[in-house]
Amino acid sequence: MPSPTRLEPVCSSGSCSGKPLGITAAVWLALRLGVADGPAAVTWRHLHGAAWLCGIGFTMSLFIANLPFESEAALDTAKLGVLSASLIAGIVGWMILRSASQEPAEPASYRSAERESGYRRGVNSGPQPTFHSMKHNNDFHVSDGPHRRIALTALLGCLALTSPLPGQNVPRLEVELEAGPVWQTRNDVQIPNDQMGTRFSLIEPLGRGPVPAGRLYVSWNFNDRHAARILLAPLSVTGTGPVNGPIAFAGETFSVGADVRATYQFNSYRLSYRYRLLHRDRLNLWAGFTAKIRDAKVELQQGSTTARDTDVGLVPLLHLAAGWRVSSQAHVLFDLDGLAGGPGRAFDAALKVGFDLNDNWRVSGGYRTVEGGADVTRVYAFAWLHYGTISMTYRY
């Protein structure tokens, strides 16, 4: 296994070189074998630019990186490499496609012997060869068979994903403010997660609740299919109470007999991509992925003794949502961000009933549960929180 200092270039080179080379080579081979033929207006530069864009992707890469690496340094370096690769792939792909859009594609019927000989010599003095200009037996070959129709159908299907659906009315902007009480039924901590630390429950000094909490959603619908959503969900609970036994936490020892002041902080900031799988009059289904930044802190204080542990990290999650219209104004709404694997898991699920006050405003209420944590060398921490929610949504 590479050392942490070499993980970043290893992770970056995989997406930045493997995707463009693999996709371009596979298409080239398919065209040479006659298995498929591409649209006339698409050049090899278009294909290569799109292949670079396929290097953008970090959800599963970050998830898989959590499985083999127990070292925090190695894991952070791997995450940096994955995110750097996505950024590089996006920039290079955009630059290639931008340059390709400025040059006209060669028409399918172009068969100039002079131009053909120029390409054969490697002299590109004119428009780029298209997929149609794939050479067979020293001549340009144009396929009119079913493979061309299949390729055109696939291309139109991809374009449809980024085009608005006709006849559907989707608000461009949605802002939701959610508030309500939160209880905890589990909040176990051990830092460090070895014989030097004591596993204890933060419920002892904090209590079970309830305490007030809130969150803010801002969603932007690019069209009827694609949307992005930002979540700001701060949470901080402080309480004072006794503990059942001596606690070794983050290098300090807290004794029985005096109250301990505890602080539990778990701020969550997320960016989600949502794809509308189904858009019907009564039913809507979404799927996508979420990049979550957690800002966590546990702090204990007893007299002059204070110990704290903080953790800021990126967590990839899957996103699922559904909406069912019960009547012209009433709705049942479900929302989930979650993923489990390796040493940890994270789930945030809500079930709400909403009522449309008018075309712009909706009020809703329901139940939300947040559960998850990690069991790694440095820390053991698992919590289960329960929310009663009331929210107001503005749609424009």
Describe this structure in words.
This protein is an alpha+beta fold. The chain has helices at 4-32, 44-53, 59-65, 72-101, 113-121, 146-160, 203-206, and strands at 135-136, 139-140, 173-190, 200-201, 211-221, 226-233, 236-241, 247-249, 252-254, 260-279, 283-302, 305-325, 330-341, 344-356, 361-375, 380-395. The strands form 3 sheets. The chain has a 10-stranded antiparallel beta barrel with strand order 3-5-6-10-11-12-13-14-15-16. It has a two-stranded antiparallel sheet with strand order 1-2. A two-stranded antiparallel sheet has the order 8-9. The longest helix has 30 residues, at 72-101. 28% of the residues are buried. The model is unreliable at 1-8 and 105-168 (pLDDT under 50).
